[in-house]
Queue: 3 jobs
Job 1
Amino acid sequence: MMQEKSIMNTKRKTLTKLVLLLGCFACFFGCKEMQGRHDETVYIPVEYDTVTVKISYPEKWTKNDKIIIWSMPPLDQDFFPDSIDANVNQLSLPPVLRSALLVSGYVNIEYTGRNDSIVILNRKYCIADLNTKAVDLDHLLEYLHSNKALRDKKIILIGYSEGGSINIKTASKRQSDISAMIQLAAGALPGKQITEYQKEQNFLATMLYITQNGRQDAMDRTTNRVSSLDSYHKADSNSVIQYLKENIEPVEDLISQFDNVDSIYFHLDSYLWNRWEKESLETKLFWINHFENYYRFFAGRITPNQITVRTFTPENYYPLIQCPVLAVQGTKDELIDCYPNIEKMDSLLVKGGNRRFESMILEGYYHSLVKGDKEHEYALYQNKVVSMHRKPNLHIEDSVIMKIIEWIDKQ
């Protein structure tokens, strides 16, 4: 058995070297032969998987002393598009900035996370999380050292949202490789503080969703049937707060009580199973007498990635960052509280002796770093018209993109 394992490991190492060699070979000759704007795909081996990397070359590679690395999987595992449609509802700053950087003469490098999965307590989860993405970024940096066309360049890391955490986790160990870092709507506050802020910001929409716009009959048919162990809930804000405290908070609190993903899921399963055993027959019939339906409702959103994001501790990494840092955040950021977050990032960098911190606070910009007037869908709640969902009619000011590129030019 040991001999078979040794043979498998030898084969895997040989295959890894072959894939890496072919990737370097293809990229090197592609860089020499292809002129003008073009993209190349490279596959970098990482442990038992590969990371797909897209290298985008500008029409004229005029800024060839630096390369830009986007340190997170953009747009739900897809690469940034080559064209930007300002009317698309998913408009955000990263793809617009990427396009502008290409026009300015910068090479952009993007990578996607892993597509494999893990099974915990017979439930399947995507393995990609903040930690694996940081490992993948580390492998990408190693790859650049072996690429003749891209090595010996100044590396500018750009991370949007979670990508900012990936930035600092990897860069804290590779200071000599990183020339500068841009944190776009990235968190420096503890995960629990960010989660509480998000609850406050999204409470109205949550309330209207749970009560189906304040209808007691809908509340009785749905929310008041999910569990027989909680209070009876009226279709008003106080009852929704009570519902969250009795049903949601105990589940989410388990994330911060245990040390690793396995123990969190073990206690999560035990907690919900014990609760299921106490539920009435009527409640069990509501869930078609199937515990997995019950489990998915209360714990389905607690993925390994959500666990690592919520338990991530920025204060362990920011003091180790010594390169120049630019933080860009909007005052209407609905996921991260802008001013406390910027202040925290600054103080953590200063704690480590880094005084090369600059911030761009964008008035009226949201977490996606766009701004503008909004059209709303409205709902009637307690005889009042309130806003429930927004249909964005948003834009990004050209001056914002120009200032970011000017900052990169100076590094």
Job 2
Amino acid sequence: MLVDRVKLNIKAGNGGDGAVSFRREKYVPNGGPDGGDGGTGGDIIIRSTRDLHTLYDLRFHKIFRAGNGEKGGARNMSGKDGTDVVIKVPVGTAVIDAETGRVIADFNTEEERIILKGGKGGKGNARFATPTRQAPKFATPGKKTIEREIILDLKSIADAGLVGYPSVGKSTLLSVVSAARPKIADYHFTTLSPNLGVVSVGDDGFILADIPGLIEGASQGVGLGHDFLKHIERTRLIVHMVDASGIEGRMPLEDYYAIRKELSEYSQELAEKKEIVVACKMDLSDSDIGYEMLREDLEPKGIEVFPISAVTGAGVKELMQKIMETLKEIPEAESLEEEGYLEEWSNYNEAFSFEITTAEDGVVEANGTLIDFIFERIDPEDTDSMRHFEKLLVDYGIIDALRRYGVKDGQEIRMNGEEFDFVE
């Protein structure tokens, strides 16, 4: 089964906490701080490969969690970094932020990219030692990450797509020219989702898709029309198969123009794609008449018609060679414009915020995710930690914001439920 769109829940690893530790060696009095840093959380990585042609493997595996960084240790030992998670996708997959709809990455070649970075590890107390602060009793926790949802959209499923009315022989042709084994039966709509096959032509090759049969009204969504047309839109070349025998009671030329009408009404860009017309079922009676009708109408317009029989193999090799030659003349699909990235939890401007208000008792309060973040990193009982706290208030603009709000020197303020005096 071809699966071309899935939604995944991803989470990079949290950073490990820094350690608070002091040297405790027998003959070393007043050992200094030796708490190590926490490890960095694992990344979420997406790797594109030509060995895959569908997102089927991700259909039932939709949650990915990278490993958390480990806590720092004594003797300046850093915590172990978290394990990265690698998600493999076919070349031609676009990664979309499910929340904003932005294109995060567009994989048109074999490559790998970090989609979501792990949190940085916290600093151990050894990092905060200075000539005047020789025994810091605090460390910082690792950065936490948040869960995100992404959509993987396989926009390029094949090089060439077989289109036409139901039961014109698309699945039969695919089974003849490749190792694909699509379901084949003598009734309409045997194929309900595209089948893919790799066709070898000498030392070259291409991917051929058997697109489910179209019907009139497909461009307006009749049947599964929009789904089918979407798959055709993702191919570089249209191989338009027409039943030359008229065994279904339709006229071949009318079939051709009916399908062309659906393509153009769905998308002008789709209608302008390079096209090869195939008169199929040439082993059946009256097929010569249908072939001549197609050839006489289309060839004066510069459209070559290839007669084939997938059953006997007549004309099939020549058709595959023509498809290969034509594909070499068509440029690869252009990459989508990448509109952004998945923000890390450490992106303070977007992830953290605070507001200043006046409580009912008249005390000015500062609250919000940024205040919570700062209080996670301090120990109110430790003098050195509180000096670090003052620096964070300045660095993140909270002191300036309090001044703009009108707070004066010596005025009482409240943060995280704790009361402080505002001192200039």
Job 3
Amino acid sequence: MSTELIVPTLGESITEATVSKWLKNIGDNFEADEPLVEIETDKITVEVPAPHAGSLKEIKVSEGTDVEIGGILGILNESKGKKPILKKTETKEEEVKEEVKVVKVETKSSSAKSSPSARKIAEENNIKLEDVTSSRSDGRINKEDVVSHLSSSNKTTNNKGEREEVVKMSKIRQTISKRLKEAQNTAAILTTFNEIDMSKVMEIRKSKNQEFQSRYEVKLGFMSFFVKAVVKSLQEYPAVNAEIKDENIIYKNHFDIGIAVGTEKGLVVPILKDADQLSFGQIETKIIDLSTKAKDGTLTMDDLTGGTFTISNGGVYGSMLSTPIINRPQSGILGMHNIQKRAVVVNDEIVIRPMMYVALSYDHRIIDGKESVGFLVKVKELLEDPSELVLGI
């Protein structure tokens, strides 16, 4: 009996996807729920699982080809049995050996401390996961680690190869390019700057981090302070949390903050939903969860849907100053940068303080200069005296 493998529904705004990689060849057997093909949309990459056990009979859409939602990816042969079929000539002793061999292989793969995408790339490139160094504190190997290992291994070969390499842009990269250009062409983007003395925030982190970590099992980072400061500032300056639709301005009464995360496939912006209702611990926990899913390629459409304002932290890459581009249809984005000790004047005295430049890019069609400057000054004031953020008053 044959069945069709269908492209699943991936979100209201998504009408097509690109087949990025078939995980099985024609004739290969598989179990129910085993990933068969990897498809890529303009937002996420997902694996389409097998609806039942069986084998791959036919591939309808080749790699690199676009397919509409609901389209047929391939034809599957259905199989009721899950155990491998042994030849009648095999003895009982041989059957026992075969079963033991299968159990050993499954035990080894199931105990591997790695993500599914990492194991897939490792298998395709004949890489032993034991040879890959994890970038995570818990030792778990993700896709980024394997890609980094592969790049390092092929460095010498690449240097001796062709001087140029033509690679088709991924669906995600195409969409990033398109949206960034649309933002420049559509919105009247301006950027205003300020600098923040991070002394008080750093003092709180130093004195409370151990207690915070024991309670929430995550470190107290800078991002939770910035999210809290941004939400309070958005409440005071609602135009920064609004968007233009046709000839109307839509003011948002909810605060869904996008956190820009860089991955090997490009920038993604998972959303911290209802950030105004979250505690410091909940914010840090959710940010780590979203960042991990982004790097492992396991973000869902719900993780990426919505967003009223975005925060981008170029400081993690060493950026001192930048002009971030707004994430349409939003009207504002805050750029964080690295913290550097600089000489500043405080009470007519020159002192050394840990300073961070911040940048607010905004759509001047909806946000006036007074509002944009006021918003950024409010963020500065809240972070330089975070008692309001901590006490919630």
